[in-house]
Amino acid sequence: MDWILEAAEAMGPQLTEWRRWFHANPELSFQEVETSRRVAEILRSFGCTSVRVGVKGTDTGVVADIDPGRPGPCVALRADMDALPIQERGSAPYRSRRDGVMHACGHDAHVTMLLGAAKVLIDMGDRLPGRVRLIFQPSEESPHSSGARAMIEEGVLDGVGAIAGLHVWGTMPSGLVGYRVGPFMASADEWECLILGKGGHGAVPHLAADPIVAAGAVITSLQTIVSREVDPLEPAVVTCGHMEAGTTFNVIPDRALLRGTVRTFGRGVWESMPGRLRRICEGICSAMNCRAEVRYNRVLPPTVNHPELTLEAAQVAREMFGPTEVQEIPPTMGAEDMGLYLEKVPGTFLFLGIMNEAKGVVHPQHHPEYDVDDQVLPRGSALLAVLALRFLSKLS
Ligand SMILES: [Zn+2]
Ligand SMILES: [Zn+2]
C-alpha cells in the first residue's frame, strides 16, 4: 500500500495540473464533450486500449477496463464529470473560462483522482488481481436525467462485483476521509397533487367544491406522514414547495396544484412514501368533495453503503493515512446518483475533506467561490486504487 501512496504522491504536480485544466473548462450535465475527450486522451496516454467514449447517443461518458489479461473478478471505480450553472466568483488563475458554468462541486477533482488511480493500476500490469472498470459518468447534477442511470442502462455494471467512489467535501478538513455504514445520502423524489373541485362565486361556497380549502388540508395533513406514520427514529422529510391556485379574490377556482419533494434514508420508508402520500391526498380531497390526481416520481434512491465493504474501506484508509485521518460522519440530506450503482452492486461512497483555511479553501459545495485543496488529490487517487485492489481480493 505504501508504494501506491508514494506513486500517487509522485504524480502530485501532474494531478494538480489536470484538476486545474478541468476546473478552467467546466461543462454542464450531458455536455461534457471536451472533458470526456481529455479523459480518454489521458487514459490512452497511459496505454489503456479499452477506452470507450459516448453513452446512449450522447458524446459524453467514458468507460475503460484495466484488464490484466487473465480471469478474475471485476470491480468498478466511479467519478462524475459535470459542472454547475453557477458564475464563478473566485480569482484563481485557473478559474472557469466559461461564463455561468463552474465546477462548484469538485467533480473536476473526482475526474482527476480517478485518472491518478487508473495510472497506478495500469502500471501494475499483470500483477493486477482482476479487472478494474473505470466509470467517468456525465450528468450527476441533473438528477432528472441522471448520468448514472444512463451508464447503468448502457451496461457499465455488467460483471462488476463491487464499486467505490469518492466525493470531495468542502466542509471537512483537507485530507480527512469520512465514511458512513448503511444509508449515507438521502433519496430525492418529486410529487405533484392536482386537486380538482368545482369553481364558483366566492360568496356562495355551498354551490362550489373549493380546491383551495382542500389544498390547505392536504398540506397540513401531509406532515402527519413524518410525525405520525414514520418511525421517529427514521429520518424523513415531506416538503410542499410549490402551490398554485385561483386568479382573483372573489372567485373559487376549479383546481389547485401542489408540488413538493420527499427525502428519506431507509429503503423501507422510501418504498412506502408514494402510497402514503397518495392515500392522504386522495382521502382528504374526497372528504372535501374534490378529486386528487397524484403523480409521484422516483428521482434518486437513497445512497446506501454496504456495511462490510465500507468498514473495510475505512480500515484501508486508516492503515494508509493514520487513524486520526479517518472519521465516521453523519448522513447528509443531499442526494447523489451514486445511489443508483449501490442499488445494483455492493460498494461504498466516501467523502474526502478539501477544506484548507490557510489556502482560503473554505467554501461549501455549490458555492460560487468553491475550490479544492489540490494537495488531497494524491491521497484520493491512492485510496481509490487501494480500494479497487482490496475489493478485488475480497471477491477472489
Ligand atoms: Zn453537487
Ligand atoms: Zn457532487
Automatic annotation (TrEMBL):
Alphabetized InterPro entries for the sequence: Amidohydrolase, Bact_exopeptidase_dim_dom, Peptidase_M20, Peptidase_M20_dimer
**Swiss-Prot/TrEMBL keywords:** Hydrolase, Manganese, Metal-binding
What's its EC?
3.5.1.32
**Alphabetized GO MF terms:** hippurate hydrolase activity; metal ion binding; N-acetyldiaminopimelate deacetylase activity
Q: Could you tell me which SUPFAM superfamilies the record lists for this protein? A: Bacterial exopeptidase dimerisation domain, Zn-dependent exopeptidases
List each copy of the Peptidase M20 dimerisation domain by range.
192-263
| UniProt xrefs under Gene3D superfamilies | 3.30.70.360, Zn peptidases
A biological-process GO annotation: diaminopimelate biosynthetic process
Using the record, list the residue span of the signal peptide; answer none if the entry has no such feature.
none
- Oxidoreductase: present as a keyword of the record? no
Q: How is the cofactor bound?
A: The Mn(2+) ion enhances activity.
Which Pfam families does the annotation name?
M20_dimer, Peptidase_M20
Residues annotated as binding Mn(2+) are 105, 107, 141, 167, 366
The name this protein carries in UniProt is Amidohydrolase
Q: Which cofactor does it need?
A: Mn(2+)
